[in-house]
Design brief:
single chain; alpha+beta; GMP Synthetase, Chain A, domain 3; Double Stranded RNA Binding Domain; 2 domains; 3-stranded antiparallel β-sheet; 5 helices; 26% helix; globular
């Protein structure tokens, strides 16, 4: 996909738009000589996780201005306290002995799983979910279903997300969904997902969390990926995948 080019007035509109996102203190967008975006620098308050801020920036620019921005170009600096101006100066090395500025990388590993889509189908006799992910350019689809209508749909969505990741896992490693919980963190609704990683006779429990941001099903997938992506560099993955038509 070719890089999009934008005039300065559109860049200024984009900066103003990002500045209106909840939790954002300031935004500066850098471009090259032809107007392609090279970096989006965001200073945020410690009310939302850096990953969630980055996703909000990416989604907002796409929805409002039609901007397709690679998430790897979005950098988020979270201010942990004190005066925001002093914090930014400290991050640039222009001040010392102030409260700490913590910068969180958006990608913990270069080959993490990324969200593409989620679909939930509820009928009078079943609940079905489909989750599409991508890793290293390979798209994977996980599906899950149940005829137990008393089961929370969020659990079916999490099961589909786990199965999507499992499509690329090499044996003997496998993932099993353990639990999905709706919780409240600092008065904000969130989802916590527990996944068990099983290798031979060893079981390692992984936990991931995501604050609720609009779509509950997407939030469940993000929480699942938050758990799995923590150990992504230590798991054996296939380098290709084949789907057979039955």
């Amino acid at each position: 996909m070719s890089e999009q080019r934008y005039p300065q007035e559109v860049i200024e509109r984009a900066e103003a738009l990002v500045n209106r996102i909840q939790g954002v203190s300031s935004c500066r967008i850098s471009t090259d000589e032809v107007g392609s975006i090279t970096e989006i620098h965001v200073v945020a308050l410690p009310h939302k996780p850096a990953k969630l801020i980055a996703r909000d920036v990416e989604s907002c620019l796409k929805a409002e201005l039609g901007m397709e921005v690679d998430h790897r170009k979005i950098g988020v600096v979270v201010i942990t306290g004190g005066d925001p101006a002093e914090k930014v100066n400290e991050a640039r090395g222009e001040a010392a002995d102030l409260d700490r500025v913590v910068e969180f990388p958006i990608e913990e590993f270069a080959s993490r799983f990324e969200f593409r889509s989620v679909n939930l189908f509820v009928s009078h006799d079943s609940i079905q979910a489909e989750v599409e992910l991508v890793r290293d350019g390979m798209e994977v689809l996980g599906t899950a279903a149940t005829d137990n209508l008393s089961l929370p749909p969020t659990r079916v969505v999490a099961e589909a997300a786990v199965k999507a990741v499992g499509e690329l896992l090499e044996e003997p490693a496998r993932l099993c969904l353990s639990d999905v919980r709706d919780i409240v963190l600092g008065e904000e609704p969130a989802v916590v997902v527990k996944v068990d990683l099983i290798r031979n006779r060893d079981i390692k429990s992984l936990a991931g969390c995501s604050l609720l941001s609009g779509n509950i099903n997407q939030t469940v997938v993000f929480a699942t990926l938050d758990a799995v992506n923590r150990v992504i560099g230590k798991l054996p993955f296939r380098k290709s995948i084949e789907y057979r038509i039955k």
